[in-house]
Design brief:
Layout (H helix, E strand, L loop, with lengths): L12 H5 L6 H14 L3 H17 L3 H18 L2 H17 L3 H15 L4 H17 L3 H18 L2 H17 L3 H17 L3 H17 L3 H17 L3 H17 L3 H17 L3 H17 L4 H18 L2 H32 L2 H6 L1
Length: 361
């Protein structure tokens, strides 16, 4: 059904040199040379697109932002709507990575309009970006059908990367709404497709999804092994963002297993990684995990609740509905524990009072 994975974001002469499993340092070096040697606006647009994507994956936000804008300016000068669509797709993807979800939706919407009828793959990637942005925001009703449409297109054209993306998005929605068996089956299908297509990046993300669901089902050991396998892929390909999310997921797995000290260390590592790459969504999610771990390890309840209040504002600003549900549930838990402990202390103090003291209190 599917062929080998390919990377349409590497175009022109770069497309012949680079593939889906090229390391991002390799991509950046090739794109830098191509930008210096480009003889036309379209060549410069294509080289800048590749540079932007490499920098984004490496967590170099400012360089990625400058590159996609340069790609768009050159594509516009060349009068190439497809190239303009690719540039805006890159910009929208970067905006989503940085937690600017409304901006991501605007850029990706413009990318869809520009690429429509000009470049089928750019059009599909931009639609996929819109669907993923809505899913991250928790707007499942708005994007479920779009995921299914994109999956049908991927199957019709034999495109494994898009199939893996669409299936993993559908799987994540099933996982978040509680259908773990369905989510596991879809994530495992993603692993099989990515492996057969030699798509290492898709393979790593899919392994992370399987690990998440198996952990939620109580299979801590297998989940950690899967994350170790995915981490090795991330390190080989210089996948900075994927590696940070892998570490955050390892924190999730350890937290669910009650290994709060280890979870705290993994969340702290992920938090540092997200900070270095200026990734506020991942930063906020890791900070929530860290707050939960510290709370379970005995942190003052008032300090925990104050931190949760700050994180709630961050989640609302970014638009992370699923994370807000998680935060609210944990805040209710902390509040209940604090109340129970307070009641216990009061009861104990009352029991220790002498009969005279009780009578006069």
């Amino acid at each position: 059904m599917y062929g080998k994975a390919f990377a349409p974001e590497y175009q022109g002469a770069l497309g012949a040199k680079l593939g889906v499993n090229s390391s991002y340092e390799e991509v950046l070096a090739a794109a830098t040379r191509a930008r210096a040697e480009a003889e036309s606006p379209l060549e410069r647009a294509r080289a800048a697109l590749a540079a932007g994507e490499a920098n984004r994956r490496l967590g170099r936000v400012e360089a990625a932002g400058a590159a996609w804008r340069d790609s768009y300016r050159n594509a516009r000068e060349a009068g190439d709507r497809g190239a303009m669509g690719w540039a805006l797709w890159s910009g929208g993807t970067l905006a989503r990575q940085c937690g600017a979800l409304p901006l991501a939706r605007r850029l990706l919407t413009h990318a869809v309009a520009l690429a429509d009828g000009a470049d089928r793959l750019a059009h599909g990637y931009a639609l996929a970006g819109l669907a993923e942005t809505g899913r991250i925001q928790g707007d499942y009703a708005a994007v479920t059908d779009l995921h299914e449409q994109l999956l049908a297109q991927a199957r019709a054209h034999g495109e494994p990367r898009h199939a893996v993306w669409a299936l993993s998005g559908i799987a994540q929605m099933h996982r978040n709404t509680g259908d773990l068996p369905k989510a596991l089956a879809l994530f495992e299908e993603c692993v099989a497709i990515a492996a057969a297509a030699d798509d290492s990046r898709g393979h790593a993300w899919s392994l992370r999804g399987v690990a998440d669901v198996r952990s939620a089902q109580g299979e801590t050991g297998p989940a950690l092994e899967l994350l170790s396998e995915a981490e090795a892929i991330c390190r080989t390909m210089d996948l900075a963002a994927a590696l940070a999310y892998n570490h955050k997921m390892r924190g999730n797995v350890l937290f669910r297993a009650g290994r709060y000290g280890q979870a705290r260390e993994m969340y702290a590592l992920a938090l540092r990684e997200f900070t270095e790459m200026e990734e506020p969504r991942g930063h906020a999610l890791a900070a929530l995990g860290l707050a939960k771990s510290r709370s379970r390890l005995g942190r003052d309840h008032g300090e925990t609740l104050a931190e949760l209040d700050v994180l709630e504002q961050v989640f609302r600003r970014i638009g992370l509905r699923e994370a807000l549900r998680t935060l609210t549930a944990f805040r209710d838990e902390v509040t209940a524990r604090w109340a129970a402990e307070t009641d216990g202390l009061l009861d104990g103090a009352t029991m220790r009072l002498t009969p005279v003291a009780r009578a006069t209190s």
